[in-house]
Design a protein that fits this description.
This protein has 20 helices and 20 strands. It is of the alpha/beta class and about 600 residues long. It has an 8-stranded parallel sheet. It has 3 domains: about 425 residues, TIM Barrel, CATH 3.20.20.80; about 55 residues, Alpha-Beta Complex (Oligo-1,6-glucosidase, domain 2); about 70 residues, Sandwich (Immunoglobulin-like). The chain binds 1-deoxynojirimycin (NOJ). 1-deoxynojirimycin (NOJ) binds next to loops.
Length: about 600
């Protein structure tokens, strides 16, 4: 496995161990909406669209902007407030748009700037906001800045990137995710120098130390805001600042003091928060927008530095501790046998809730384009339990105190495709890692088995619209295989079924919208030692609700210590409740007390 990935995983695993303290047991003071700093982005439900896989309009097998436009009424019908669009900028697509060659143009497979304007207009007409992806730790190596930069050592763009002249010897090791040899430096004979790339060699890291780079980026951000977008999701933003003297990191430091290496040498560099403050002053503060960091490497100890209001940096971040839970240390995305440990899961989410109790604001998600499908990873995707467990997870996401980021397709209960061979994968991460393991004589069968559960492509298969060819996603050949279960799992079918995952999702959103207690209400964990049921209350202004979630395929009893007998049932994924003290398999029940 590449050093970078090992470090990321280790950071998430070790920090979750360090912080896996018992959830806060302070006396509960019910929150009050009057004393709450209300913001639209706290009350929003964000729906993430991976444009490549959502809807193909022109029949080339790749989703596009016109495709999204053709489904705006569907999106509106969900009740979501904000769309986060993965990158749609011009890109050679080494990493599906996370390698941008022109920040102010649209990827040709996705359409034109006119299409973009129509999309934004269509969303705003429906009162839905649009958040774009901001990928500025790196650009594409085909970006004009990089083409100039590599041209000569004296080119005015040279210091837009990080170069190391070869006469100084080889630069100290830095990890390059997605590279088969694991190295984050690539030699370029044109100027006899190495350049830095934390991801693939097609994604050179931009040099944020250079004020001109920062000004270019801020100008570009204003370009999009002036068009009317409503915010940015910021790709690996803690990576932008690094120790640019590139000191040697010993193997010991890499192996043991991952955190030291990570924080001081490779990411979260000394000027990170200066850059974010500058971005806030120069751009974000001028617009009514939202900002959310992809918080790679961020822990509960550092989260406040990004999101506390008085710091004037960003609004929210999403951490990796939750989605990394259960990974085998030292292995690449391999899940420990025995399924998820609910107690660890619950403590982790309770811990993240508690740190934002007084300051800052959290996010919650179980799926996105870098994750497998949530029902496969966190629920149970067998035919018997797929729908129920998917609805149970949706209940969790929409009843926590944090802004939910919900990944398109999860509302249908879409699950992992589980490819059998490497030829079926399209993702640079899976393909690169396969080659690396092969070169090292590792166990490829084991790797492919793990990938069935954890590979990113599982979350990238085409959205399932109906039971016609290719799930109604495209009239052409889809760029990645469609999950064969589209015959039964699709929008058209679920529209007709009042008990479907889709309609359940809509009802829950409505419930959250109509009851601010689900947004701002105080969270309290109950029945802390219960290994099967996650139970909590939310409370605000005299209103109290209780959420009961059975995370297992067996009936499970719950001892909430609260009399629910007179409670009013607000939601139940079985349609009606049976008993509040014994939950049916994967049952989710929400009562007002
Ligand atoms: C995080 C993005 O979410 C992921 O898809 C991408 O591969 C890396 N950053 C590199 O941009």
């Amino acid at each position: 496995m590449s050093q970078m990935r090992r470090l990321l995983l280790a950071a998430a695993i070790i920090s979750s161990a360090i912080f896996s303290c018992q959830p806060n047991s302070k006396p509960v003071i019910a929150a009050s909406v009057d004393s709450t700093n209300r913001k639209w982005w706290k009350e929003a439900v964000v729906y993430q669209i991976y444009p490549r896989s959502f809807k193909d309009f022109d029949g080339d097998g790749i989703g596009d902007l016109k495709g999204i436009i053709s489904r705006l009424d569907y999106i509106k019908s969900l009740g979501v407030d904000v769309i986060w669009l993965n990158p749609i900028y011009a890109s050679p697509n080494a990493d599906n748009g996370y390698d941008i060659s022109d920040y102010e143009n649209i990827m040709k497979e996705f359409g034109t700037m006119q299409d973009f304007d129509s999309l934004l207009h269509g969303l705003h007409q429906r009162n839905i906001k649009l958040v774009m992806d901001l990928v500025v730790n790196h650009s594409s190596n085909e970006h004009k800045w990089f083409l100039q930069s590599r041209n000569s050592r004296t080119n005015p763009y040279r210091d837009y990137y990080h170069w190391w002249n070869a006469e100084r010897g080889k630069p100290a090791f830095r990890p390059g995710s997605f590279e088969v040899d694991g190295s984050g430096w690539r030699y370029d004979s044109l100027t006899n120098a190495y350049y830095l790339h934390y991801f693939s060699y097609k994604q050179p890291d931009l040099n944020w130390e250079n004020p001109k780079v920062r000004q270019e980026i801020f100008r570009m951000m204003r370009f999009w805001f002036d068009k009317g977008i409503d915010g940015f999701r910021m790709d690996v933003i803690p990576f932008i600042a690094k120790d640019t003297t590139f000191p040697v990191i010993t193997q010991k430091e890499l192996d043991e003091k991952y955190g030291g290496a990570w924080d001081h040498y490779m990411a979260s560099g000394p000027h990170l928060h200066d850059y974010l403050k500058e971005m806030n002053t120069e751009v974000l503060s001028k617009y009514n927008c939202m900002s959310v960091a992809e918080g790679a490497g961020v822990t509960t100890a550092t989260a406040h530095d990004f999101v506390d209001e008085d710091r004037h940096e960003l609004n929210m971040l999403y951490h990796f501790e939750g989605v990394s839970l259960g990974f085998v240390p030292g292995k690449f995305k391999e899940i420990e046998p025995g399924g998820i440990k609910l107690i660890a899961f619950r403590n982790l989410y309770s811990k993240w809730d508690s740190i934002f109790e007084e300051r800052g604001w959290g996010t919650i998600y179980l799926g996105n384009h870098d994750q497998p499908r949530m029902v496969t990873r966190w629920g149970n995707d067998s035919p018997e339990w797929r729908e129920l467990s998917s609805k149970m997870l949706t209940t969790f996401l929409l009843t926590m105190r944090a802004t939910p980021y919900y990944y398109a397709g999860d509302e249908l209960g879409m699950n992992n495709i589980k490819f059998n061979s490497i030829e079926e994968y399209k993702d640079i991460e899976s393909i690169g890692m396969y080659q690396q393991i092969k070169n090292n004589g590792g166990d490829l069968r084991e790797f492919l088995n793990d990938q069935k559960i954890t590979a990113r492509d599982n979350g990238r298969t085409p959205f399932q619209w109906d039971n016609s060819n290719n799930a109604g996603f495209t009239a052409g050949t889809p760029w990645i295989k469609v999950n064969p279960n589209y015959k039964t799992v699709n929008v058209a079918g679920e529209e007709k079924d009042s008990m479907s995952c889709l309609n359940y999702f809509r009802k829950l959103i409505k419930l959250r919208k109509e009851n601010l207690v689900f947004v701002y209400g105080k969270y309290q964990l109950l029945d802390k030692d219960n290994p099967n049921v996650y139970a909590y209350t939310r409370e605000m202004d005299g209103k109290k609700v209780i959420v009961l979630l059975n995370f297992t395929s067996k009936p499970a009893s719950v001892n909430a210590g609260i009399n629910i007998d007179n409670g009013r049932l607000l939601m139940d994924n079985y349609g009606k409740a049976s008993s509040a003290s014994t939950l049916r398999p994967y049952e989710a029940a929400v009562y007002q007390l």
